[in-house]
Design brief:
By secondary structure, this protein is mainly α. The chain has 5 helices and 2 strands.
Length: 106
């Protein structure tokens, strides 16, 4: 989204989350979530690296109790304001992301 203000184009970011530091991550799912494997997969931007949420909801609330199938559907097809990532992630990457989400946000 862009606005023109006094002849200057100002970009407005949709989300303000911050990724966790790269050097602190080893799990493939955490690396995906934080945008280090595929920059276009940037879950942290809306859910923050901590998962507490910025524009998107807190994963501390949304992930617990959800099945892997339900999480896969949300990740691949999107939900509400969340974009779909099915065309950006392989099945293996979706599985890695789900495993990390379920282990991190119990």
């Amino acid at each position: 989204m862009r606005f023109v203000l006094c002849g200057v184009i100002v970009a407005v970011a949709g989300c303000a989350g911050v990724p966790l530091p790269r050097e602190s991550l080893t799990d493939p799912g955490a690396l995906l979530y934080n945008g280090y494997v595929r920059p276009e997969v940037d879950c942290y931007r809306c859910h923050d690296g901590s998962g507490k949420g910025t524009r998107g909801p807190s994963l501390l609330v949304k992930v617990p109790g959800k099945s892997a199938e339900r999480l896969a559907k949300t990740i691949t097809k999107g939900s509400g304001f969340m974009p779909k990532y099915g065309d950006k992630l392989s099945e293996e990457e979706v599985s890695q992301l789900i495993a990390w989400l379920q282990a991190t946000f119990k």
